[in-house]
Amino acid sequence: MISSKAGYNYPVNKPRSILVVDDDKKIVTLVSLYLKNDGYQVICAYDGRQALDLALTAEPDLIVLDLMLPGLEGTEVCRALRARLIKVPIIMLTARSTEDDKLRGLDIGADDYITKPFSPRELVARVRAVLRRLDHLEPPQAEVLTFAHLKIYSSRREVWVNNRLVNLTPTEYRLLELMAHEPGKVFSRVDLIERVFGLDYQGLDRTVDVHVMNLRRKMEQNHPTRRFIVTVPGHGYRFEGEPEHEVSNENHHIS
Amino acid sequence: MISSKAGYNYPVNKPRSILVVDDDKKIVTLVSLYLKNDGYQVICAYDGRQALDLALTAEPDLIVLDLMLPGLEGTEVCRALRARLIKVPIIMLTARSTEDDKLRGLDIGADDYITKPFSPRELVARVRAVLRRLDHLEPPQAEVLTFAHLKIYSSRREVWVNNRLVNLTPTEYRLLELMAHEPGKVFSRVDLIERVFGLDYQGLDRTVDVHVMNLRRKMEQNHPTRRFIVTVPGHGYRFEGEPEHEVSNENHHIS
DNA sequence: TCGAATCTTCATCAAATCTTTATATCGGCG
DNA sequence: CGCCGATATAAAGATTTGATGAAGATTCGA
């Protein structure tokens, strides 16, 4: 399997190979140049069919894949690979920067995306970042947290509410990610402070309130009827992952 | 400072005991104060010999240990305990913050260290963190308390009576959780006050009556024929919980 | 170094919660 | 039956808590 090559035990000295796929040859050439300059071996493909073949036979360590390709769409290539349980990291190139495209890329299993026009330098940086992440293979952490109307992509630290990107500060993101990992669990302000700011934090615990408020405001801007973070009076906050969780004490029956 | 009402953090189950060792009595006193305020039982020692004795006889759940001690060095105490395969978690207090000291502390089997001068709050936070880390390894304590027509989800702080959620105030929840942990045991009003509000509570013990009444009203709204909290005239209250009946299928309605 | 983004603190208000007080109820007992 | 101590209940007042807006402090990158 390809992914084993790109993973944990990969020899440090052997150069990584990267498959670059785009129907625009100029782009492929430019990107190859930069990647080679950074010490990678580069394989090229110019359509989807070719890309899929090479992905399977050459077993690259990473794929840079254009979303729109002649013959076989980039998304199809991605899906086909994932369907075969091939976990090689994929960075999507999206022509337009519509949110739809970005989301589509992440949803079908891409590890990262970058929108055209992009600087080759940034692409190289992202390649490095993705590979580094795999090498460290962080404590097994869900890469994507999915709930009704909410997706959290931890590889990019991105949060999407109702298919729209939410611009969060680092603190807000960490708060949300922490709580979303254990939906329903009540976190006290002290819990949150210790795990978001560290054990040596000196400030007031009321600070959490403000961050939660800002988080709510930003998220509910995209989904006014849904409250993701619920106050538990006297004790703290919790993330509600289930869309239909009834929180009233009215006299109705639960099936 | 963190404004958590003293007593809210008191563990429902058995309080943890912590051995604090330092030759500086002022430090011991200060640390003890903070730990007690967080709901721990504290034992003190002022030299290494005493520390080792107490560690063996009192069997504390955690030790806060100064590195430099008269008589027997902290490192020696630590080593001696580990040599006897005693795995009690140890947090080292190191006077200086040289990398050497830190490493030495961790090398000889400490679980964490903190360098002087330190904030008592940070120490308490580290104590909590170490204990939490250990708890994570153990089979988690009863996450759900289940009785006939009553479920208490402690991580969610939710109480369900007859499959309906009951909206409790913090005090009501704590009262119920405390008593439900020992069904049948009679709690005097003073017992309840001390464990729910803390030892420094100033009010009347009659206050408990009111909370019990509110608790009953809310619970019996969902199950009029059942009295969960029974009065024991002249003594206090006790929780009556029958173990849950056979539940074969979740998809039935209760009428 | 400056400026923008972010974080922290603070003041205020409304709502939830807690405590006290006063009165009602209950059970046992002479 | 009426008294007594103890508990239940309702209601009023006091306190605490959380939401929120805004000001000041800090951080970070250009």
Q: How many separate helices of chain A?
A: 9
**Strand line-up across the major sheet of chain A:** 2-1-3-4-5
Shape of chain A: elongated
Rg result of chain A: 21 Å
Q: Tell me the total number of β-strands of chain A.
A: 12
The stretches of 5 or more residues of chain A where confidence is low (pLDDT under 50) are 1-11, 243-255
Largest interface: A-B, 29 and 29 residues
Terminus-to-terminus distance of chain A: 45 Å
How much strand content do the residues of chain A show?
Answer: 15-25%
Level of helix content of chain A?
25-40%
- What would you call the structural class of chain A? alpha/beta
Structure description:
The structure is a homodimer of 255-residue chains. Chain A has 255 residues and is of the alpha/beta class. Chain A has helices at 2-5, 25-37, 48-57, 74-83, 99-107, 120-136, 170-180, 189-196, 207-221, and strands at 17-21, 41-45, 62-66, 90-94, 112-115, 144-147, 150-153, 158-161, 164-166, 186-187, 229-232, 236-239. In chain A, the strands form three sheets. Chain A has a five-stranded parallel beta sheet, sandwiched between helices. A four-stranded antiparallel beta sheet of chain A has the order 6-7-8-9, sandwiched between helices. In chain A, β6 (144-147) and β7 form a beta hairpin. Chain A is elongated and about 60 Å long. Chain A binds chain B through residues 182, 184-186, 188-190, 193-194, 199-200, 202, 204-206, 232-235, 238, 246-249, 251-255, and chain B through 1-4, 8, 119, 122, 125-126, 128-129, 155-157, 163-167, 169-171, 218, 221-222, 251-254. The structure holds a DNA duplex (30 and 30 nucleotides).
